[in-house]
Design goal:
The structure is a single chain. The chain is about 65% helix and about 0% strand. By secondary structure, the protein is mostly helical. The chain is rod-shaped.
């Protein structure tokens, strides 16, 4: 036997169907937003594409920085040798003897080089993804990192008797 009852909405008018669906009537005029109702936020502006030259320059600077960090960081792990070579180039008589501080601060400088590069790369990639001008970020990151690392390198150098004798001799001239 077949079911002869009306199906859902079969006898409902289009307005009743819209009302049951939670929609306004078809002939209703949309109300203008009142002062009490918050206006809908404007759509977010589309993200601008990065300039191709900016992307290339930024990635090239990051790659150059990575090579520099690896080479310099490895040399800072043996800071007494680097200090001896620097003192020889400067014409300082004697050898670097502040080995304990040289190892500690050389390792610290190598770690800070890596951390500085990672932060710079992260900030650069974030800016590239949002389409902002980015070529300057690796330059500023390198300068800030080298300032901090230079302080780490100066600490054992200023604690070395041979270097301080050289500095005292320079100031007496």
């Amino acid at each position: 036997m077949t079911d002869q009852r009306p199906q859902y909405g079969e006898y409902a008018t289009p307005d009743e169907q819209r009302r049951l669906a939670g929609l306004p009537p078809a002939d209703a005029v949309p109300a203008a937003p009142s002062i009490e109702q918050p206006a809908q936020p404007a759509p977010a502006p589309s993200i601008a594409k990065a300039r191709p030259w900016d992307r290339i320059v930024t990635i090239a600077l990051l790659a150059y920085g990575l090579v520099n960090v690896v080479m310099t960081g490895l040399s800072y792990l043996d800071l007494p040798t680097v200090m001896n070579e620097s003192m020889r180039i400067l014409g300082v008589e004697g050898e670097f003897t502040n080995f304990a501080q040289g190892k500690l601060w050389g390792t610290t400088a190598a770690i800070l080089l890596v951390v500085g590069w990672v932060i710079t790369a992260w900030l650069s990639l974030r800016r590239l993804r949002t389409g902002k001008l980015t070529w300057w970020v690796p330059l500023v990151g390198a300068a800030a990192t080298m300032l901090i690392v230079s302080i780490c390198i100066m600490i054992p150098m200023m604690g070395d008797p041979a270097f301080m004798a050289y500095v005292d001799g320079m100031s007496g001239r």
